[in-house]
Write a sequence for this structure.
């Protein structure tokens, strides 16, 4: 998309009705060009409304992401990001964007946010739906000078960092669900996606992405409420409307990811194991683990030192390193 699309969105972000003539004058284009820009934004699921013979508006105000504001918040949290943070207006996915770049030097992580993602991804190649202005989608590129112990458990550690940050924002019921979901009262609030490159005995690099629901539109909730899918939640509901500003949330969570990566670099998963256990959404519950065509039911018993899910199946304690996990009703 062009800079004009972004400039139009900046003008419409206040949620106020703007006439086509005013928008055209402020953008330095014709009214026909404004209509074309609006149509192209709609094609990307930006819900620009038109009022006949009056003008255009968004259904509600949207706080657009601002790199300087995010940087200030992250710096206040102990992670100055000057020159290493970018806010993309549109991209396929922030993970793909950072993964395609050269790995950053150890100690100089990169962070990328996006207003619009065309192809956001979750686990196992699934799409991550993030309608415009409804949440946060961002990624961190990090290099470990030496591969830390327990690297397969890194996603669990980052999940702990995210949930601890959300709890500091008064989201007391936030928990982590193996392997990489952020949940609130059993409903999915967000998810992590990790891409790791490592060398035996050498450095390791990771791109860690987080998608978080902030204010999900009603049509998106309906679209996600398909049979068998995990129910969703957003911060607006979970915090009873007392949601921090989008840029404050962005800076806080970026710092949380960076802090977790830094701690993992020094101590591995051992620094997170007890905290994970306290925040584990599955421990003690009856669960089903689906791997391909095979489905196993048992009692979730936490995670081991390398991040595997422990499930008691009859008299055996099984370890699972991948699979889809869902809650099951306890037997009568």
């Amino acid at each position: 998309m062009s800079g004009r699309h972004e400039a139009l969105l900046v003008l419409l972000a206040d949620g106020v009705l703007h006439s086509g003539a005013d928008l055209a004058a402020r953008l330095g284009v014709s009214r026909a060009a404004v209509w074309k820009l609006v149509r192209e934004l709609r094609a990307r699921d930006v819900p620009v409304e038109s009022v006949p013979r009056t003008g255009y508006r968004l259904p509600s105000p949207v706080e657009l992401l601002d790199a300087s504001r995010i940087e200030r918040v992250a710096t206040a949290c102990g992670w100055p990001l000057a020159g290493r943070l970018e806010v993309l207006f549109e991209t396929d996915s922030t993970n793909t964007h950072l993964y395609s770049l050269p790995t950053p030097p150890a100690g100089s992580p990169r962070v990328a946010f996006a207003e619009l993602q065309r192809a956001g991804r979750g686990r196992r190649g699934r799409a991550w739906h993030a309608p415009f202005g409804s949440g946060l989608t961002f990624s961190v590129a990090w290099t470990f000078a030496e591969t830390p112990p327990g690297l397969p458990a890194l996603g669990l550690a980052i999940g702990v960092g995210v949930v601890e940050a959300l709890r500091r924002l008064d989201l007391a019921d936030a928990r982590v669900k193996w392997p990489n979901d952020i949940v609130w009262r059993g409903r999915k609030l967000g998810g992590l996606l990790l891409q790791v490159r490592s060398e035996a005995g050498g450095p390791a690099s990771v791109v860690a992405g987080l998608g978080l629901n902030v204010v999900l539109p009603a049509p998106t909730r309906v679209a996600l409420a398909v049979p068998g899918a995990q129910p969703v939640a957003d911060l607006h509901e979970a915090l009873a409307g007392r949601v921090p500003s989008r840029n404050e949330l962005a800076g806080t969570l970026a710092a949380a990811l960076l802090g977790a990566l830094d701690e993992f670099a020094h101590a591995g998963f051992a620094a997170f194991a007890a905290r994970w256990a306290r925040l584990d959404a599955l421990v003690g519950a009856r669960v089903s683990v689906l791997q391909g065509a095979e489905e196993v039911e048992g009692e979730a018993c936490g995670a081991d030192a390398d991040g595997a899910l422990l499930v008691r199946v009859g008299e055996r304690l099984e370890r699972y390193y991948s699979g889809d996990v869902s809650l099951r009703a306890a037997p009568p």
